């Protein structure tokens, strides 16, 4: 069995997922002008395999053809960037922030018809994508790593790199997918509903050294075609749609701070977070396969969606095939609503969980009614073909072929004669 591949394959199959991220306290607004970091100068044509771990196929030079397509005529523009080639040490001592930002933002070899990476004010359009790879190591950062549009950030799945915020860290988040510019009244780099084509996976983000309430692991203000996978908090203030899977959150006041129009999340584990999921707002959110293990502390909560007794900013949420233990409150939602009530007004459906439905229910009627209890709503029957052996809706994580070698792949361009694209067989 072989896989067709090229440096472009990950770009073509781009999906955004988070996994193995350390949970963060709720971030505070930082009145800091967010500008493109140019404090490190990258090599003009850096090698593609410096200091790589040989255990993961993506680190091997054979996979770095570095040809961008779709209107980009450059043969020198580096699609693949290894952060070590731009000066990052990963030794647990050196401040690697500037070097990592250089790997993210370098425009070396960019085509003359556009200035290079799509950063501030680019209007979500580019022919200069990038894959930024982190070999194993501990990379210390003291201010945010700014992620340009159309970027995949990937770590070695066999040796998860640690991205560690230093004691002097200043900023909203270690990784920022949509920076705020406070010199422009807090304007974002991108319109959040148009912030597409992003992926992060295989990273361990360590926030244990920063002060309480000073930052998150990832500021993930994104839209469709985005994903987080295999990362160990998240601060998501708004956006429109996406996917997260295989995430781990350890400790902190808030594991994941969520707010977006619609989102799907699965296989997320929260260990000893004061509040595992803070659902700030949504139109509709699915949480599937969630495991919360608390420390039985006062006011500990699995899922919080009760912003105030009078306001309900969370629309609807489905919590399915999940387990919450060791917390005082499994799910908190608001009641006695009098104003600012969305049409779904905090509707919560708990499926395959020994709890109940609470919220505004539409049951074969155009008129909503508030109900609660085990029999408050009829849960649709799930066909057996959709279930696993435990009665849960079948799901699986996206394969990353962690144990694959060079011999397991065919190259779509070199071996298959394809102009672009990749196929697994």
What report would you give on this structure?
- This protein is mainly beta and 425 residues long.
- It has 2 domains: 56-241, Pectate Lyase C-like (3 Solenoid), CATH 2.160.20; 251-383, Single-stranded right-handed beta-helix, Pectin lyase-like (Pectate Lyase C-like).
- The chain is 3% helix and 34% strand.
- The protein has helices at residues 9-12, 97-105; strands spanning 3-5, 17-18, 80-82, 91-95, 130-134, 138-141, 145-146, 151-155, 162-165, 173-176, 180-181, 187-188, 198-206, 216-219, 226-231, 234-235, 243-250, 254-271, 275-293, 301-305, 316-320, 323-325, 329-333, 347-351, 357-361, 369-373, 409-411.
- It is globular.
- Residues 1-53, 339-345 and 420-425 have low confidence and may be disordered.
List keywords for this structure.
disordered C terminus; mainly beta; Rhamnogalacturonase A/B/Epimerase-like pectate lyase domain-containing protein; Pectate Lyase C-like; 21-stranded parallel sheet; Pectin_lyas_fold; two-stranded parallel ribbon; RHGA/B-epi-like_pectate_lyase; 425 residues; disordered N terminus
List the helices and strands and how they pair.
Elements: E1 3-5, H1 9-12, E2 17-18, E3 80-82, E4 91-95, H2 97-105, E5 130-134, E6 138-141, E7 145-146, E8 151-155, E9 162-165, E10 173-176, E11 180-181, E12 187-188, E13 198-206, E14 216-219, E15 226-231, E16 234-235, E17 243-250, E18 254-271, E19 275-293, E20 301-305, E21 316-320, E22 323-325, E23 329-333, E24 347-351, E25 357-361, E26 369-373, E27 409-411
Parallel strand pairs: 1-27, 2-15, 3-5, 4-6, 5-8, 6-9, 7-10, 8-13, 9-13, 10-14, 13-15, 14-16, 15-17, 16-18, 17-18, 18-19, 19-20, 19-21, 19-22, 20-23, 21-24
Antiparallel strand pairs: 11-12, 25-26
Pfam families: Pect-lyase_RHGA_epim (PF12708)
GO molecular function, one term: polygalacturonase activity
Signal peptide: 1-23
């Amino acid at each position: 069995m072989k896989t067709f591949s090229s440096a472009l394959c990950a770009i073509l199959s781009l999906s955004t997922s988070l996994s193995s991220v350390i949970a963060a306290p709720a971030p505070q607004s930082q009145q800091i002008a967010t500008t493109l970091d140019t404090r490190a100068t990258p090599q003009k044509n850096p090698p593609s395999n410096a200091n790589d771990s040989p255990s993961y196929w993506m680190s091997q030079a054979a996979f770095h053809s570095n040809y961008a397509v779709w209107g980009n005529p450059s043969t020198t523009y580096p699609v693949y960037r290894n952060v070590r080639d731009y000066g990052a040490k990963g030794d647990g001592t050196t401040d690697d922030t500037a070097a990592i930002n250089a790997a993210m933002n370098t425009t070396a070899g960019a085509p003359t018809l556009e200035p290079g990476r799509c950063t501030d004010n680019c209007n979500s359009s580019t022919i200069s994508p990038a894959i930024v790879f982190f070999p194993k190591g501990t990379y210390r950062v003291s201010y945010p790593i700014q992620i340009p549009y159309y970027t995949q950030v990937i770590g070695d799945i066999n040796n998860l790199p640690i991205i560690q915020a230093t004691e002097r860290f200043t900023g909203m988040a270690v990784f920022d997918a949509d920076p705020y510019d406070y010199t422009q009244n807090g304007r974002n780099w991108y319109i959040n509903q148009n912030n597409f084509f992003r992926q992060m996976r295989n990273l361990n983000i360590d926030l244990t050294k920063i002060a309480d309430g000073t930052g998150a692991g990832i500021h993930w203000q994104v839209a469709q075609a985005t994903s987080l996978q295999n990362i160990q908090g998240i601060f998501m203030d708004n956006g429109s749609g996406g996917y997260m899977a295989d995430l781990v959150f350890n400790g902190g006041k808030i594991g994941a701070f969520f707010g977006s129009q619609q989102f799907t999340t699965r296989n997320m584990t929260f260990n000893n977070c004061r509040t595992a999921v803070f659902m700030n707002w949504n139109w509709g959110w699915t949480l599937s396969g969630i495991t919360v293990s608390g420390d039985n502390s006062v006011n500990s909560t699995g899922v919080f969606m009760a912003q105030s007794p009078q306001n309900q900013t969370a629309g609807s949420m489905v919590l399915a095939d999940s387990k919450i233990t060791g917390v005082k409150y499994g799910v908190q939602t608001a009641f006695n609503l009098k104003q600012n009530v969305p049409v779904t007004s905090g509707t919560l459906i708990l499926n395959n969980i020994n709890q109940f439905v609470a919220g505004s229910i539409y049951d074969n009627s155009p008129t909503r009614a508030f109900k609660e209890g085990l029999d408050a709503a009829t849960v649709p029957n799930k066909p057996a073909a959709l279930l696993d052996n435990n009665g849960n809706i079948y799901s699986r994580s996206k394969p990353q072929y962690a144990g694959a070698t060079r011999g397991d792949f065919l190259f779509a361009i070199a071996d298959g004669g394809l102009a672009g694209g990749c196929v697994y067989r």
